[in-house]
Amino acid sequence: MKIQNLLEKNGIKIFLFVLICFIWGSTWFTIKVGLQELPTLFSLSMRFLLAGIVLLILLKKLNIQVPVNEKQLFLYFYLTFFSFLLPFSFVYWAEMTIPSNLASILFATMPFFAAIFSKIFLKEDLNLIQGIGLFIGFAGVVFIFNIDLQHFGGVLSFESEKFVISMIAVIFSALFNASSLIMVKRFGGAIHPLAINFLPLTLSGLILFIISSIFENWDTIKFGVKGIGSVIYLGIFGSIVTFTVYYWLLKKVPAIIMSLTAFLTPVFAILIGVFIGKENITANILIGAVLILIGMLLVNSYFLVKKITNFKEKK
């Protein structure tokens, strides 16, 4: 069986969807670990530059061209700033102050921004069942949010201005990523998933490297296992693997469905904290996970019913 035919199977799409959710869930903990040895923007720039170098090698080996015209250049620059540079800078900076679990949960607001943008720009309507699914899913995120503050080291103090600003920064990161999702849906359909990330990742890495050299103290840099390991993992798996698969799936699956990765990510983020970071797990986390999965089932049920109906009509 050809690889292309295999990739078109729904089971493979579901597996890839869950895989990128797992990897993204692990990145929140990995970011926190890496920042123990590397400055914020320097760490992020190394992640993106490494990803850019590996992508360049893959593009050459696979003989994949990076198409360039006016609309595609616009898309590349838009993704540079609103999919990579600004959102990730906000997240990295925020995780210096707020718990990684809380950051991942705040990022789960992305589907709501995606739903608004999809309705405005892509004319993708959101029916009642899908709306209920999103609401239930977010309710599950709230369950996890409460447990994070009580059992995972988060201390919510609204008297701390930096803490609140950090929370808002992550929400803006979610908004920017949602807008990037819509832009890829509109202008990136003809671009190979590997090619679509190369210029944005590389440009983001170069810009961040320059900014870091000016504003950050490189005397504090420690090239230890945590720092180097986090850069390699985040650069290869957290950037290339996830975004390439994500943008490929985005061409096959509605944007609002893909935005639900933001719901599953906090679940994996906390589970990884439990098994890797030796944190406690409670019943509320399991309840939150169930609510999130039910929400996803409701959102996806509309498309499942539609496919079954179309299949019966053809028969």
UniProtKB/TrEMBL annotation:
It is a multi-pass membrane protein. GO terms for cellular component: membrane. Keywords: Membrane, Transmembrane, Transmembrane helix. It is found in: Membrane. It comes from the Bacteria. The chain crosses the membrane at residues 12-29, 41-61, 73-94, 100-121, 128-147, 163-182, 194-215, 227-249, 256-277, 283-305. It holds the Pfam family EamA. PANTHER family: INNER MEMBRANE TRANSPORTER (PTHR32322), PROTEIN PAGO (PTHR32322:SF14). This is EamA-like transporter family protein. It comes from Candidatus Kryptonium thompsonii.
